[in-house]
């Protein structure tokens, strides 16, 4: 292997300047072609986009040795890479990541109906030669990503609960990594979707907004368990308009009245979705975006993958450390005044409405309905996570119930909607239900 390592020239693979692939048939007849995409894999391997059945493809299958010319878009330095073809992947993490990037590139150049990834050709890099030295000095980096990541890590280590962890994550992305638009979504394995628990930089927080696995860049990253980075806007991997248009076209327009507004940018030109995984299971996805093309680099991707690893560990610890025994309730619930508020519950999906205002559904909806039932029937206001886990009305899954995260979602949703019912944390594993109006419960 040469002294030049692949990870030091990753800027050459961003697609700003097309790469040129040189191949030859068994008779030595050369052929050169431009490539849509070069994907860095590790310090010895790259993947090239396979899009057409052409002379290049035939040459690679007959003669696995090839040459690739790439250019650093910032300095003009040119490199030649000696390659050896290994295999073609047509599914899985690598393929889905390259497919998403190609869709963004195709939209950018007006060829969304032409560019289609057939496979990801994996090559071993056997030699790297610099054939033309830098013709321009490299620009200074906007920030030291490693130093910023260290500061983020220190702040996350100081968090004491999930709500603080989620808020600090959003703040660190903005203040330390210069990422102005971000959202954190958690996985609901029962519903097969992800739901938003925190966001930053948007007009609507989108708390409670859901997206199915496999839908858009967020859902694909979650389903495949791999980070996906897109440098140009693409309709194929958008996550809001596609869902709404599908519902409108299928006669489900009325159901959209209960939809929570999506928190994302209307014109997102750069996207990066990173799965949060721990103990061999999906916990959620960290998603960032920008109205600027080519905003996120390989370094940004590395930083967020590392940050998500720490997030997963912190979430696992916070949700599995036993809480202390419940403390006795010291005072009864204060008297409430005003006109009764009708709260409706739909048992099929645990959807809860305050009057005609949609509030929450799913497991969080079941939790809210159980709390309100106990309040109306017994005046109970003090609760613990432990007793909720044992409550058969909530129907938590046996494994990975994610109760603490669902309580954070519920508390934020009630606050955001300015509901006359709030949840206040009173200690680790304990909270209080605060009700400001008389309630009239109705099963719909």
Characterization of the model:
With 444 residues, this protein is α+β, with helices and mostly antiparallel strands. It folds into 3 domains: 6-132, Pnp Oxidase, Chain A, CATH 2.30.110.10; 145-320, GAF domain (Beta-Lactamase); 341-443, Winged helix-like DNA-binding domain superfamily/Winged helix DNA-binding domain (Arc Repressor Mutant, subunit A, Orthogonal Bundle). Helices cover 29% and strands 29% of the residues. A hairpin with a 2-residue loop joins strand 12 and strand 13 (281-290). Helix 3 runs parallel beside helix 7 (298-320). The chain starts with 18 loop residues before the first strand and ends with a strand.
Task: Set down the secondary structure blueprint.
Layout: E1 19-24, E2 30-35, E3 38-40, E4 45-50, H1 55-62, E5 65-71, E6 78-89, H2 93-108, E7 119-132, H3 145-157, H4 162-175, E8 181-188, E9 193-200, E10 210-212, H5 216-224, E11 228-230, H6 241-249, E12 270-278, E13 281-290, H7 298-320, E14 341-346, E15 351-354, E16 357-360, H8 362-378, E17 382-384, H9 385-390, H10 403-416, E18 421-427, E19 430-435, E20 439-443
Parallel strand pairs: 14-20
Antiparallel strand pairs: 1-2, 1-5, 3-4, 4-7, 5-6, 6-7, 8-9, 8-13, 9-10, 11-12, 12-13, 14-15, 15-16, 17-19, 18-19
